[in-house]
C-alpha cells in the first residue's frame, strides 16, 4: 500500500467514524411528540407528586439527549391536578381534546389514576401509570402498571412479609393488625388478617381508623396493651410516623412492626422507627444499583431532589416506579415504531420490559404481572432490603430486636 | 373491657388533644363572636406559626418557646393588617369566609414554596421528655400545650370580663352603634382584637410544632373539628373552646379506647348535634 492509498484509507475511515458518531448523537428533529399528564404538584399529595415531576423531567431530558423517540424530540406537558381526582379528570380531558397530545402518562395516586383511566378509556388511549394501589379496580384493557405489586397484593405482600419473619430468629406467634381506612392500605390489611390466620398466627388486636385521624394516643395505648409479637400497620404517609410518635410517648416499642406505605424519608430519620419494616420495589444499594442505568438515574435524581429542596433525596418505590413507567413507554414506542395507542397496548400485552426494578410483564389479570415487592427494614438510619435473600443488601439480614 | 391504665391513658390523650383544639379555637371564636368574622385564615396562620417555630428552632437554633418573642408580635401586626383590609374594603361576615379562605390558600402556597410539601418534624429537647404519673405517661410537649391553652384562655376571659377594653369589646359586639355613642372606638378595638387573635394563632402554631408532624395540606385537616369546638363553646366566649375541646377530645379518645377508632368522629359530631338541639339558644 503506497502512501497515497494509506491516506485515502485513513480519510475514509475517519469520515465513516464521524458519520457513525454523528448518527448516534444526532439531535432529535421534526415535530415534537407530545406526552401529557397531570401530577399532584400542590395539595396533600404534593410531596410525592414532586418526586414524579423530577423523575419525568430527568427521563425526558435523557430521551432528548439520545435522539428522542423515533428520532423526534419529546415534549412533556404536565399540569397540576392539586391532588384532586376530579380535577385530574378534567385536565386529562383537556390534554386529549384541546392539547391533542400524542400519548398519555399517568398521574400520581390511586384516585387520580382512576380518573385518568376513565378518560383514557373514553378516548381509547394508552395509559401507563406509576403507583396505582388497588389492582382489581384497574379494568381498562389499555392501562399498564409500572408498580410491580402483582394482581393480588392483599395476598402476596402479607405472605412475603410473614415469610421474612418466619425465617427470622424469632418468628411471631401473635399479630395485631391496625389500619387506616384509606382504600389502598385498608384492603391489604384485611388481606394480612386472612393470611396470618391461614399461617396460624393468633390475632390479638384489629383496629381501623378514619384517614385524617389526629389523635393516635388511644390507638397506641391499645397496641401497647395487646403487645403482639408482630404489629401490621396499614398506614399511609404521615400516619405511620404519627403512630410511632404516639407509641413513643407511652414508652412502647413494638417487638416487630411493619408499615404498608410509610413516608420513607421521615420514617428512616426517626430514631423510634429503627428496625421498622416496609415494602419496596427499589432501594439505593446492590443488586438494584448494579444496573448502570439505575446507577446513573440515582445520581441525577439525588442532585435534582436536593436542588428542589426535598428533605429526602433517595430513590425508592415512588421514584423507581415513575422511572419504570417512562421506560415502559419508551420500550413500546421504540419496539413498534408507532404512536398508535392500540399498537402500543397490544405490544405491551405480549412482551416484557426490562426496568430498573426488574423485568415487568403485563399478561396477568388486569395487565398485572409478578409481585416484585421486597421487604425493607430501617437499620441504623437507612433503609435496606432484607427479604428475599437474593435481593437483600450486601450483608443485610432481618434484625429482630 | 379496657383496663384502667388504657382508659386513663386514653383520657389523658383526649385532654391533651382537646387542649390543642381549644387553643386553635380560641382566636377563631373571638373573631367570630366579637368581630362577626368567620376567619378561616386562622388555621393558615396557626400553621404558618408552626413552620416559623420549626424554622427558627432548627435553622436559627432558638428554643421553641423563645420563638414566641418573635412570632407573637409579628402575628399581631399581621392580624392588624388583615383587619385594616377588612375595614378598607368593608368585607361583610359572609364575604369574610371567602376572603379568608383565599388567604388560607395563599399562605398554604407560600408554606409549600418555602418548606416544600414534605413532612417536617421539630425535634426539640422537649419531645424526648416523658413524665410519669403512676402507670400513666405524660409527654412534656402535650403538657406544655395544656398549660398554654389554660393560661391563654384564662387570660382572654379575664381581659374580656375585668378590663375596660374587654368590656368595650363585648359592648361593641352586642350593639356597636350604642357602644360608639358611649365613646367606644370600635375600629381601634377591632384592630386590637384581630391582632390579638392572630397572635393566639401564632401561639397555637408553637404547640402544633411541638407535638405534630407538619405538612402544608394539614391546614385543612383541623377545620371541621375546630368549628365544632367553637360552636359548642359558643362564639365569642374565651373559656368555651377549651372546655368544648376537652369534651370532644376526651369523647373521641375514650371511643377509640373502647370501640373501633373509626367511630370517634361520628361520636364527637353526634355530640355536637345533640348539644345544638339541647341548647339552641346559646350554641
Alpha carbon gyration radius of chain A = 23 Å
Biggest sheet layout of chain A: 7 strands, mixed
Structural class of chain B: mainly alpha
Largest sheet of chain B: 2 strands, antiparallel
Most extensive interface, chain pair and sizes? A-B, 42 and 44 residues
CATH architecture of chain B: Orthogonal Bundle
Helix count of chain B equals 11
- What's the SSE pattern of chain A? HEHEHEHEEHEHEHEHEHEHHHEEEE
What fraction strand of chain B? Answer: under 5%
User: How many angstroms does the end-to-end distance of chain A come to?
Assistant: 77 Å
Q: Which segments of chain A are poorly predicted (pLDDT under 50) over 5 or more consecutive residues?
A: 9-24
Level-2 CATH architecture of the largest domain in chain A: 3-Layer(aba) Sandwich
Structure description:
The complex is a heterodimer of chains A (about 400) and B (about 280). In chain A, about 45% of the residues lie in helices and about 20% in strands. Chain A has about 400 residues and is an alpha/beta fold. Chain A folds into 2 domains: about 35-150 and about 285-365, Rossmann fold, CATH 3.40.50.2300; about 155-280 and about 375-390, Response regulator (Rossmann fold), CATH 3.40.50.2300. In chain A, helix 5 (about 155-165) packs across helix 6 (about 185-200), helix 7 packs across helix 8 (about 240-250) and helix 11 (about 315-335) crosses helix 12 (about 340-350). The longest helix of chain A is centred in the first third of the chain and has 22 residues, at about 5-25. Chain A is globular, with a radius of gyration of 23 Å. Chain A starts with a helix and ends in a 14-residue tail after the last strand. Mean pLDDT of chain A is about 90; it is low at about 10-25. Chain B has a single domain (about 5-280), classed as ABC transporter involved in vitamin B12 uptake, BtuC. Chain B is about 70% helix and about 5% strand. Chain B has a two-stranded antiparallel ribbon. In chain B, helix 1 crosses helix 9. Chain B starts with a helix and ends in a 5-residue tail after the last helix. The interface of A and B includes residues 224 and 265 of A.
Amino acid at each position: 500500500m503506497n502512501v497515497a492509498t494509506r491516506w485515502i484509507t485513513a480519510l475514509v475511515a475517519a469520515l465513516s467514524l464521524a458519520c457513525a458518531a454523528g448518527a448516534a448523537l444526532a439531535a432529535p428533529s421534526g415535530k415534537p411528540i407530545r406526552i401529557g399528564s397531570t401530577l399532584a404538584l400542590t395539595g396533600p399529595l404534593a410531596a410525592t407528586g414532586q418526586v414524579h415531576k423530577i423523575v419525568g423531567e430527568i427521563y425526558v431530558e435523557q430521551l432528548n439527549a439520545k435522539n428522542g423517540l423515533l428520532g423526534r424530540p419529546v415534549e412533556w406537558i404536565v399540569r397540576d391536578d392539586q391532588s384532586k381526582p376530579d380535577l385530574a379528570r378534567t385536565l386529562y380531558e383537556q390534554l386529549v381534546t384541546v392539547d391533542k397530545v400524542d400519548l398519555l402518562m399517568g398521574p400520581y395516586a390511586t384516585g387520580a389514576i382512576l380518573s385518568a383511566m376513565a378518560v383514557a378509556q373514553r378516548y381509547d388511549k394508552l395509559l401507563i401509570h406509576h403507583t396505582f394501589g388497588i389492582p382489581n379496580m384497574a379494568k381498562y384493557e389499555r392501562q399498564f402498571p409500572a408498580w410491580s405489586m402483582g394482581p393480588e397484593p392483599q395476598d402476596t405482600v402479607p405472605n412475603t412479609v410473614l415469610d421474612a419473619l418466619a425465617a427470622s430468629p424469632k418468628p411471631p406467634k401473635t399479630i395485631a393488625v391496625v389500619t387506616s381506612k384509606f382504600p389502598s392500605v385498608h384492603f391489604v390489611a384485611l388481606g394480612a388478617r386472612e393470611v396470618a390466620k391461614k399461617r396460624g398466627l393468633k390475632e390479638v388486636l384489629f383496629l381501623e381508623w378514619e384517614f385524617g385521624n389526629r389523635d393516635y394516643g388511644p390507638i397506641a395505648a391499645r397496641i401497647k396493651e395487646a403487645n403482639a409479637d408482630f404489629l401490621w400497620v396499614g398506614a399511609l404517609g404521615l400516619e405511620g410516623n404519627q403512630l410511632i410518635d404516639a407509641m413513643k410517648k407511652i414508652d412502647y416499642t413494638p417487638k416487630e412492626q411493619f408499615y404498608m406505605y410509610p413516608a420513607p424519608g421521615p420514617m428512616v430519620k426517626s430514631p423510634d422507627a429503627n428496625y421498622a419494616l416496609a415494602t419496596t420495589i427499589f432501594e439505593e444499594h446492590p443488586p438494584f444499583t448494579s444496573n448502570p442505568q439505575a446507577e446513573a438515574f440515582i445520581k441525577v435524581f439525588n442532585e435534582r431532589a436536593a436542588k428542589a429542596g426535598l428533605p429526602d433525596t433517595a430513590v425508592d418505590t415512588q421514584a423507581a416506579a415513575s422511572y419504570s413507567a417512562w421506560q415502559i413507554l419508551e420500550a413500546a414506542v421504540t419496539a413498534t415504531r408507532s404512536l398508535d395507542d392500540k399498537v402500543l397496548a397490544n405490544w405491551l400485552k405480549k412482551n416484557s420490559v426490562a426496568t430498573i426494578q426488574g423485568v415487568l410483564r403485563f399478561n396477568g389479570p388486569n395487565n398485572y404481572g409478578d409481585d416484585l415487592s421486597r421487604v425493607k427494614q430501617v437499620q441504623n438510619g437507612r433503609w435496606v432490603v432484607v427479604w428475599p435473600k437474593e435481593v437483600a443488601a450486601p450483608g443485610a439480614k432481618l434484625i429482630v430486636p | 373491657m379496657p383496663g384502667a391504665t388504657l382508659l386513663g391513658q386514653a383520657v389523658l390523650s383526649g385532654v391533651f388533644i382537646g387542649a390543642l383544639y381549644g387553643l386553635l379555637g380560641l382566636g377563631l371564636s373571638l373573631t367570630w363572636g366579637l368581630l362577626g368574622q368567620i376567619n378561616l385564615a386562622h388555621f393558615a396562620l396557626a400553621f404558618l406559626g408552626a413552620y416559623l417555630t420549626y424554622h427558627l428552632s432548627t435553622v436559627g437554633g432558638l428554643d421553641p418557646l423563645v420563638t414566641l418573642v418573635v412570632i407573637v408580635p409579628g402575628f399581631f401586626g399581621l392580624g392588624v393588617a388583615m383587619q385594616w383590609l377588612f375595614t378598607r374594603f368593608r368585607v361583610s361576615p359572609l364575604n369574610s369566609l371567602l376572603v379568608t379562605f383565599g388567604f388560607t390558600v395563599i399562605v398554604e402556597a407560600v408554606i409549600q414554596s418555602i418548606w416544600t410539601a414534605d413532612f417536617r418534624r421539630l425535634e426539640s429537647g422537649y419531645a424526648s421528655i416523658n413524665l410519669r404519673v403512676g402507670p400513666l405517661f405524660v409527654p412534656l410537649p402535650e403538657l406544655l400545650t395544656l398549660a398554654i391553652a389554660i393560661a391563654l384562655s384564662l387570660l382572654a376571659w379575664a381581659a374580656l370580663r375585668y378590663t375596660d377594653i374587654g368590656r368595650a369589646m363585648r359592648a361593641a359586639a352586642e350593639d356597636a352603634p350604642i357602644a360608639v355613642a358611649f365613646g367606644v372606638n370600635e375600629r381601634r378595638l377591632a384592630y386590637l382584637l384581630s391582632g390579638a387573635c392572630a397572635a393566639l394563632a401564632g401561639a397555637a402554631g408553637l404547640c402544633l410544632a411541638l407535638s405534630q408532624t407538619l405538612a402544608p395540606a394539614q391546614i385543612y385537616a383541623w377545620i371541621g373539628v375546630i368549628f365544632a369546638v367553637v360552636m359548642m363553646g359558643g362564639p365569642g366566649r374565651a373559656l368555651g373552646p377549651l372546655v368544648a375541646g376537652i369534651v370532644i377530645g376526651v369523647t373521641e379518645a375514650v371511643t377509640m379506647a373502647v370501640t373501633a377508632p373509626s367511630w370517634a368522629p361520628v361520636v364527637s359530631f353526634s355530640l355536637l348535634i345533640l348539644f345544638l338541639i339541647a341548647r339552641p339558644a346559646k350554641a
